[in-house]
Each structure stands twice: as structure tokens, then as C-alpha cells.
From TrEMBL:
Source species, domain of life: Bacteria
GO molecular function: ATP binding; phosphoprotein phosphatase activity; phosphorelay sensor kinase activity
Protein name: histidine kinase
Subcellular location as annotated: Membrane
Amino acid sequence: MGRIKTIIGKIKKFIHSMRFGIFAVILILGSIPMTVLEHSMHAYYRSAMINNTQAQLQVQAVALAGEIGKYQDKTFTSTGSYEAVIRQYSTFSDSRILLVNYGYVIAYDSYAFESGKTIVSENVIKAFTTKKTISAYNKAAGSIEIMTPVLDDNKNAYAVVVMSTDVSEALNYTDDVLQKIYIIKVSAITMLIIIAFIISGILVRPIGNVTHQVNDIAMGHYDRRIRKGAYSELSDMTSGFNDILDKMNNLDESRQEFVSNVSHELKTPITSMKVLADSLNTQEDVPVELYREFMADIVEEIDRESKIIDDLLSLVKMDKSSMTLNISSVNINELLELILKRLKPIAQKKNIELLFESFRPVVAEIDEVKFTIAISNLVENAIKYNRDNGWVHVSLNADHRYFYVRVEDNGIGIPQESQKMVFERFYRVDKARSRQTGGTGLGLSIVRNAVLMHHGAIRLHSEEDVGTTFTVRIPLNYVPE
């Protein structure tokens, strides 16, 4: 029972595979022309055989009518005059011949079955009236009939020659031939099935190779990469997958480094505070000045640790998948002026000129808190990673759909190789400088998350020793997903 289920499972898997799809397409595209050709040949041969037989009988019927007309015996009472001719034509053409007079009486029957009987036939009447040869194929009886008028010297019809022949045997012979063609078609389709199965296997083999490599990676070999496939689409897919693996490895390395850094950063202030506190506890009669100095150092270490914790909390709150926005209509001009006012003391410490330029009044639907955090991070980074006596330029503009915030500085810039990574969590361009400035590598990740939550976009342009420009684009009207 288990083996049967396994076989059924494999069959289902094959049916839902790309190989089966390719196999089915090849089989259908190959079988349809064969089937159409078979039916076309069947119809063509039957039609050609019937038409040829009709043409031959018609020629013979016309000739026979001409022979009978020579006798000018309109009453057909002179025996032996036309009977011999009719029998001769009947034998030669292997057909039954009736001679019908003007009263629609069968004057002669080559089979001697219906002589003297009256015949009422639409085609016989038509041959009398039109004085033309009439041909008909009786599909049910499998016979062909030719009705030809016998004309006198005045071109008047006084009799009709009816020739009929059975074509069922000939059609059966044609069916036998077509039966052989059908056998050939079945053999060809069988070969096509084999060829389609082989070709489909060859076509999907590169995909199978990629799948095997993916499974190896899924088993834990994350250092491996997928080789490019034989098809351009497969190569594009493998390149994208390899890029994802590279980003995952970089992210994992960044996380490990971040855990190490944060552990160190969190431990260092605590250690410092413990040393300072122990020093105060072990000394007697500590001077007030020393006590104040130690307490100031302890406060500084607490602020340092608080900054790390705040960044971590901000990152969690900016998680797009689990955070909702408190959307309201906000005057962006006034909000940017307020942000720059708060950050101005930090800029003054490095004698950095902080400029704001607004091209038009802008009111947009945003989450004021999260937008403020994002812009504050950008401006604060522009100040921290700038030169003394430098400048930071913040500008605001808008069109009919979006508003744009541009934060530009003339600071140290970001290396080209790091520009793709700066928005990743825990990534820091210069680890030593970031530690000195209190950076944790979370600021730009927080900015990106805040922008994405507003359905916006952020773009970076930077040159080392020239400066950096961040451009944020956010819709004026927020539309929930």
C-alpha cells in the first residue's frame, strides 16, 4: 500500500512539473498536425474517388444516350435495337442501366428487375425538363447515379438513361488504405511521445541542477553559490538568488558584529560606572569636587548607554511589518524648521552652518513622530560626519503628488563600495569613527523604515571628501495598503 502511494505521489509530482508541461506541449503540437492530416486525407480520397467515378459514369452515360438516339425509336418497341448497346455499356462500366421513356416508365432494366414499372424521381424529372445530365451521390446507399436525357433531332428529350453504380466497396478499399495511414499515425505519435519525453528532460535539466544546488544550500551550506544556468532567464534568477545569499551573509555578519559591539558598548558604561562608584565607596572623606567630577562621569556614561537603548527601541518601533502610523495633516515647512532648531546646538559645537530653504508651502499627510525621527537622523548624521566649519543644507519642494526633502552636506562622504550597505541594519562605514560619535549603525535603517512606511523612497548620492546628499520623496496624501 505504501509503495502504491509513493508511485501515485511521483506521478502527481510529474504532472505538476515543468517537464510535463513541455512534454504535453510538444505532444500536442506534434499530434494535431498528424490528426488534421489524417482526416484531410480521408476526406480528400473519398471525395476524389466519388468525383472520378461520377465523371467516368457521366461520360459513359452521355455516350450511351447518343448511341440510343441514333435509333430514333421513341416507343422502344424494336427489340434488339438498343438492348445490346445497353448491356454492353452495363458490362463495361459494371453498373446498372435503366432506360426511362417520356411517360416515366422503365422501358429497359439491365438487371431485368423493374422493366415496365413507373419511376418517379426528382432527378429523372429534372433531366427531362432541363435536358441536361444530372449526377447524384447517395451517401446512405453508397451509390452514384447519372441521369442523361436522350434527345431527338429537334433536341427534345424523349427518354432518360439512368446509370447507377455501387461505390461502397471502393470506399471500403479507401478506408483500408486510410486505416494503414492511421496505424502509421499511431506509430508516429508513439515515437513523438518518446522524443517529447527525452527533449523535455533535456530542457529542464538545467533547472534540476539549480534545484539541486538550492537544496544543498538549504541544508546549511550557506557559503556556496549557484552556478549560472544555460538559459538567460535562469541566469537572471540565479544571480538574484546569489545576491540574496550575499545580503543574508552580510546581514548575518553585521548582526554578529552588532551584538559584539552593543555588548561592548553596553558593558563599557556599566563597567565605568562601577569603577567610579567603587572608587567613591572605598574612599573616606571624598572631596565634594571629586564627588561631583565622578558623578558627572557617571551621568555621561548613563547618557551614552541611553543613546544605544533609544536607537534599539526606535528600530523596533520602525518595524514596518508590526507598526501602524498615526496619520495627520502636518505643515512640513514648520516641522522642518522645528527639527533644525532642535539640532542647531549640535551644529554650533562644530561651527557648522545649518541652512533651510523652502520653495513652497507644503502640507502633507504623515506620521509626525516617525517623520521627525527620520529627518532628525539624516540631519544629525550630516552634522556628525562633517568637517569643522562646514555646512548642512536642508531644502523642501513639492509637486502635485509628492514632497521632497533634500539633506546635503560637504562632509567626509561615503565610499562607493559602502553606499549599497548603509541602509542595512547594524552597518557602519567607519566603525572607529562611529564609536567616537556614538553611532550604532542603526540610524539610516531607522530612516529607511520610516520612509517606506509612508510609501516613500530615499536616494543617496555621495563622493568621498566632497559630501553627501540624501533625497527623501513622500506622497502628499497617504493611501493605506
